Amino acid sequence: MSVMEAVAKTKFAELTFDEKLDRLAEVAVKVGLGLRAGQELIMSAPIEALPLVRRITEHAYKAGALLVTTFYSDDPSVLARYEYGADASFDYAPKWLHDGIAEGFRSGAARLAIAGANPALLAKQDPAKVARANVAASKAGKPAMELITRHEINWTIVACATPEWAKLVFPGEPEHIAVAKLWEAIFVSSRVAVDDPVAEWKEHGARLKKRMDMLNAKRFSALHFKGPGTDLKVGLADDHLWAGGGTTAGNGVYCQPNIPTEECFTTPHKDRVDGTVKASKPLSHQGTLIENIAVRFEGGKIVEATATAGEDVLNRLISTDDGARRLGEVALVPHSSPIAQSGVLFWNTLFDENAASHIALGQAYSTCLIGGEKMDAAQLAALGANASLIHVDWMIGSGEMDVDGVAADGTAEPLMRRGEWV
Ligand code: ZN
Ligand code: ZN
């Protein structure tokens, strides 16, 4: 029985669409954010997500929110910039806005992002302009982003099916069918298509924590990935810490930063990654699908990178800065995750990274090092944590991937066989 067939047999299948949407909103506020009474909420969303935004806003105020403020984005308006904007526009980002949001976080606001923008929106735009706009946005957004990546505040991301995204995921379907299918896939992947989603998330979180505790107790010095086209040794950073599922943010609030989440992840050592690796799924990066990525690492650094499509985007990406050729994350995800089982390529990292074990180029999470939240850049680098303006996950796991944990003395222990936990 497929995941979708199993869901068709639950009470969830009998709910109206509005009731289903309300379940997702409730999970976003109660599980994702763990929003506290008196806390401000800053939300960002595509304009098409308005019905979900309204549901989330209701749940937030019911939970005692001080004020809910939403910033909307609009895909056609983004395209207008590329079509008519002056050249200088692509090196500019509204620092004043990002600083204001950072100030909001520092004074206690939680953050919720709704994903749903068309992943292929910028596919036909000048990649150099796209890269410049991203660098400008990353620089301006750094103070706010640091509060998020350091988990100083409670935050979460949930998704909303939008027409352009849905048509990309389900090509050939009429728009309304594609949107309905994408919504079902989001509900199933986000673990809300069950009778009691809040209880389900409690159990799911406990299961992830058990894996994490096991990995943290083992203190492996490296992971060894073996699969078709892959023979990769990923050294782990000294004092690395595995994370996954929920986290207690610096403000003391317990939150689930990603909905869905199926991964246990940690910080690789930026200088100790060697071997070859082949992506198991296409990587959708800023509107371009990069297909069949194959990469060779030497001493932590990519020395060879190819792709059968989007190779120029890949090369531009790894040339962003010094850290863009090195790893900032390694994550284990079983092939039996509901996202993998849905068989859907979402064109969105929030989902696709939870379908397979993966690695990420670029910035490491300081929270994945013992005491890392309080360390400065030099201390983090000394332990092997990578630094970069980018953080891009790409999928390497599959039902054919074996993973060993390698101890400091070189002895290997099977962690995953054919994509499943041993
Ligand atoms: Zn990840
Ligand atoms: Zn990542």
TrEMBL record:
UniProt-recorded name of the protein: Aminopeptidase
Species of provenance: Tunturiibacter gelidiferens
Keywords: Aminopeptidase, Hydrolase, Metal-binding, Metalloprotease, Protease
EC number: 3.4.11.-
Similarity comment text for this entry: Belongs to the peptidase M29 family.
Enzyme class: hydrolase
InterPro entries, sorted: M29_Exopeptidase (IPR052170), M29_N-terminal (IPR035097), Peptidase_M29 (IPR000787)
GO molecular function: aminopeptidase activity; metal ion binding; metallopeptidase activity
Gene Ontology BP terms: proteolysis
Cofactor requirement: Mg(2+); Zn(2+); Co(2+)
Top-level division of the source organism's lineage: Bacteria
